[in-house]
Amino acid sequence: MIAPPLIELESLSFSYTGSQSPVLDRINLTLQHQQQLGLIGPNGCGKTTLFHCIMGLLKPQSGSIRFKGNEISEVEDFFTLRKEIGMLFQDADDQLFSPTVIEDVAFGPLNLGARPKAALEVAHKTLTDLGLDHLEDRVTHHLSGGEKKLVSLATILSMQPRALFLDEPTNNLDPETRERLIDIIARLGLGFIIISHDYDFLAATCVDLAGMEAGRIVPADHSALHTHHHVHPHGTHPHKHGDH
Amino acid sequence: MNFETFSTTSSFIQRLDARIKLLSSLALIIVISVCRTFPTASAGLTVAIVLVLTAKLEPWLVFRRLMLVNGFVLFLWFTLPLTYPGETAFNLGPLGISREGIALAALISIKTNAAVLVLISLIATSSVAALGQALVQLKMPIKLCLLLLFSYRYIFVIHQEYLRLVRAARLRCFKAGTNMHTYRTTGYLFGMTLVKSHHRAHRVRQAMVLRGFQGQFRSLCESQLGKNEVGFSLLILTVVAALITVEIISRFQS
After folding, report:
1. Domain count of the fold of chain A
2. Could you report the per-residue pLDDT of A32-45, keeping only the tens digit for each?
3. Which helix (H) or strand (E) holds A217?
């Protein structure tokens, strides 16, 4: 028997109250275990809303979300989903609220019921794996933008998720941190959906690519052709687009 | 902005458990603030100075903070000797300076400085995070503790957001003046900062919920009270008892 996909969306629609046009318009999407999917699309096309609906932060008006084959709609159902899918927010300042880095990374494991000692160990291990253990006792709001992004990834990985949702992870990152992030994602070997309009980043990290336009999922090549406007001021590594 | 000037210097007092420091400063400040005689107030000030010395704080920074408070105390010196009823000590032109007024202003000055020094040496030497955690452990209302911790975490972010708006206004040649345009713009700036903070709070909550937050903070440090804490508590208890004795004796004598 084939295991059901990790996430299956069927005809998912969402619109904000008082708004005429839906943000998500009858979305059908499947994410298999270990699948590495990139979602590309212009600002305001509903990418973040899609994540929030799947994670249970927003309630879709119609359609269904299936997690490992079971339909989920109640708050308790989402708890099990949130344990297995870690979501990285666009703005790292939203994610890091604890005074020190180690406390923030241990926050998730503590909520999942780990004893303080075990939570501390898993937090320490996660930071060490990412090469961030030197930041452990730093105050979160004194970190640089790149450090904040990597630490907020650590706060999610410490919960040992099966898959990741990354919302515009390369926004405001310097090239060096961006490369480091690509490296980390490749090493993790987890399934994920990455939302981005950084085409090159998606090409470097994802196996599959889909586009999003005006609340609908569209085939990637179509969308990519329309959104691929980047230039290469530092063209050190020659590459072809789309051959991943 | 930096609120934690004193919490980084390593000293015996800085390393003490924040709960003990909170309770000790509470006890000392209560005695200092209700005392009415000079011997007690002066003894309290001496204790406070000893505490500040033990905490090995930068004297210049402590002095600067004290000056801030003494700015308010100065107002008492302008008003109390002139207005307090009592025997005239001397005349300043047509104005009579009251002896009791001077005594009262002096007493308040000593008490204020003593209380502030106790706060600087015992409270300011803990990080805000440690204080928040200590308040939770002392069974203070959890909502207020969270309010303290989150205000501290996000005040920097909100301040930066505010500065970004101010910069954006300046870059478009905004100059503050005494006119309707300035008032309106300032209103917009504050309003926008408020709206942004509200949205930020919403997103922070979402991020916390996704990581399994259910309204209860689980502490990472299972802090225990060691020998130092017990010793320090006993010392402070003795000092408080001594101060009370001094106060009772001096009240009987006067």
Report:
1. 1
2. 999 999 999 888 88
3. strand A216-219
Predicted TM-score (pTM) of this structure: 0.73
Residue ranges per domain, chain B? Answer: 12-126+224-253, 141-210
B154 contacts: CB under 8 Å, gap ≥ 6: A97, B197, B200, B201, B204
Whether A175 is covered by a domain: the verdict is yes
User: In this complex, which of B153, B157, B206 lies closest to A99 when CB atoms are compared?
Assistant: B153
Domain membership flag for residue A97: no
Residue A43 belongs to what domain range?
7-92+161-227
d(CA A149, CA A109): 19
Chain B residues near residue A51 by CB distance under 8 angstroms: none
CATH number of the domain enclosing A19: 3.40.50.300
Give this complex's ipTM.
0.74
Residues of B with CB under 8 A from a CB of A: 127-129, 149-150, 152-154, 156-157, 200, 203-204, 206-214, 218-222
pLDDT tens by residue, B145-183: 888 888 888 888 888 888 888 888 887 778 888 888 889
Nearest to A82 among B154, B210, B221 (CB): B210
Is residue A167 packed enough to be buried (19+ CB in 10 Å), middle (13-18) or exposed (0-12)?
buried
Tokens 């406007």, residue located: A229
Residue in chain A closest to B161 (alpha carbons) equals: A93
- Look at A102 and B220 and tell me if their CB atoms are within 8 Å: yes
